[in-house]
Amino acid sequence: MNPRRTVAAYPLQALLGVATAAALVATAVVAAGGGSLSLTLRFAALSTVLFAFAVGFSAGPLAERYL
C-alpha cells in the first residue's frame, strides 16, 4: 500500500483524517491548558464528527479495494 497513491485516490478521506488529528490535538491543548469545559466539549464533539465522517467515507472504497 503506497500512501501517496492512497492520498491521491482518496483526497477527501485524507483531508478528514488530518482534520480529525488537528481537532484531537486542539482538544488536548484546551483541556490541558485549563480552558473552559464548554470549549473542550465542543472540540471533542468536532473530533468525533470528523472521525465518523472519515470512517464513513473510507469504509466503502477502501474496503472494496483492499479486502
Mean pLDDT across all residues, rounded? 85
- Main sheet makeup: none
Order of helices and strands: HHH
Helix content: over 70%
Number of helices: 3
Unreliable stretches: none
Shape: elongated
Compute the number of strand runs: 0
Which structural class matches the secondary elements? mainly alpha
**What is the rounded Rg?**
15 Å
In percent, how much strand structure appears in the residues?
Answer: under 5%
How many angstroms does the end-to-end distance come to?
A: 12 Å
Summarize the structure.
The chain is an all-alpha fold and 67 residues long.
Give an account of the 3D structure.
This protein has 67 residues and is mostly helical. It is built from 3 helices and no strands. α1 crosses α2. It is elongated. The model has no long low-confidence stretch (mean pLDDT 85).
Features:
3 helices; 67 residues; 88% helix
Topology readout:
Blueprint: H1 3-9, H2 11-32, H3 37-66
